[in-house]
Design brief:
The complex is a heterodimer of chains A (131) and B (263). By secondary structure, chain A is α/β, with parallel strands linked by helices. Chain B has two domains: 126 residues, no CATH class; 100 residues, Arc Repressor Mutant, subunit A (Orthogonal Bundle). In chain B, 35% of the residues are buried. The C terminus of chain B is likely disordered. The interface between A and B is medium-sized, with 25 and 22 residues.
Chain lengths: 131, 263
């Protein structure tokens, strides 16, 4: 099987799309006319946002993402060459800081923020994959 | 974060560090004093000196909830083992209930750990001390209740102390009263106190390393507001968030990859 989507359930889809455009420099690829679902331009593996209320259509339930609560045990990670710049831009757009840019022993620079819905977002330099 | 393939050093997580008893060593070349922050765990320590004529002293600490100063002379050395949080009961037995913030010395310490009593003689080598401490840990296995408590300790750390006692109990499949009884008999602290300590240490790290304001740190740590974080830092550290002491030693509950960072 192919990984199709990472879908984050949020309270307000258009607000989240605008936030991700401002905070992380993404662009919207698709917005459903109901505004209950949207996709960002992220290449083959789509980052989508779906309104929380949609899950009840299928009888699902989950712990909602909330800025004031502890985040869920997963993250999305954005790769960039200039992490400090991207970190500042994310904070300026309203992300809350969790771990400021710092180098890890294998030479990567990583940082963590939480987005407007409280989701964990990592901003890091590319992994050096050469042997 | 993505862990690298092919990177030589083994990644060693804080959870791994908490799950084994690690023998640690420390030495002070000059006289002075250090502020030790509480982390709710027990230590068995032998304190000696570079001067082999100084007789080693056995020190057994109960679960600490308050900061304390350790004063030392030039050449003072320590070798000790910091026990897993859920191991307090293995060390103190029926006395665990009175062990909070207590330190047992000399005869009292030797009563608690008779396996180590023979170490307090002049001229004993660091190697002997280390071996005795390792044997001591191996000789006292953890009870099933200790293992169960350890699972909740793990959850407290993963959630940064932000889960309520009710949520922790629900995930442990027991009542809050039962979880507190389990903690009382193994960790030696209430669930709430242990979680508060974990929350305090995370808040301290956020203040120093998150890259945001004090209010950001308080919120991310799970405090109702900055005033609550200030109160916790006063209680567990004796300082306020805006005035964290320079070079503060945080208890080494971190894993081996990043090491122990001073504030």
């Amino acid at each position: 099987m192919k990984l199709g989507y990472t879908i984050i359930y949020v309270k307000n889809v258009p607000e989240t799309v605008a936030f991700y455009e401002a905070a992380f420099g993404l662009t919207q690829r698709f917005m459903h006319e109901s505004t209950l679902y949207a996709e960002m331009e992220t290449g083959d593996t789509v980052l989508s946002f779906s309104a929380e209320e949609v899950i009840e259509l299928d009888g699902l339930a989950f712990a909602p993402n909330e800025k004031s609560a502890i985040p869920a045990g997963w993250e999305i990670c954005f790769i960039t060459e200039d992490v400090p710049d991207a970190f500042e831009k994310a904070l300026a757009a309203g992300c809350s800081p969790v771990s400021k840019p710092h180098e890890v022993p294998w030479g990567q620079t990583i940082s963590y923020v939480r987005d407007l819905n409280g989701c964990l977002v990592e901003i890091a330099t590319p992994m050096n994959l050469e042997g | 974060m993505r862990l690298p393939d092919g990177y030589q050093e083994r990644v060693f997580t804080p959870q791994q560090a908490r799950s084994v008893e690690a023998v640690w060593r420390h030495e002070e070349l000059q006289a002075g004093r250090s502020l030790i922050l509480p982390d709710g765990r027990c230590d068995v320590i032998v304190r000696y000196n570079a001067d082999p004529m100084v007789v080693p002293r056995l020190v057994v600490s109960g679960p600490a909830t308050q900061p304390y100063w350790v004063t030392f002379e030039a050449g003072d050395r320590w070798i000790g083992v910091r026990l897993r949080p859920e191991r307090g009961g293995v060390l103190w037995g029926d006395d665990l209930g009175c062990a909070k913030d207590q330190v047992a010395l000399e005869d009292e310490a030797e009563d608690l750990v008779p396996e180590l009593a023979g170490l307090c003689v002049a001229g004993v080598s660091a190697k002997d001390l280390r071996q005795a401490l390792v044997r001591f840990v191996e000789g006292r296995p953890l009870s099933p209740e200790g293992h169960r408590a350890g699972e909740s300790v793990r959850r407290v750390h993963l959630t940064g102390g932000r889960f309520s006692v009710a949520e922790l109990a629900a995930r442990a499949g027991c009542s809050t009263r039962h979880l507190n009884r389990m903690f009382a008999g193994t960790v030696g602290l209430s669930v709430k106190t242990y979680a508060s300590l974990v929350r305090f240490h995370r808040a301290l790290r956020l203040v120093c390393e998150a890259g945001g304001s004090l209010s950001d740190a308080a919120f991310e740590a799970g405090y109702a507001d900055q005033a609550h974080m200030t109160r916790a830092m006063r209680r567990f550290g004796g300082f306020v968030p805006s005035d964290i002491p320079e070079g503060l030693i945080r208890p080494d509950v971190s894993g081996g990859l990043w090491g122990n960072r001073a504030a």
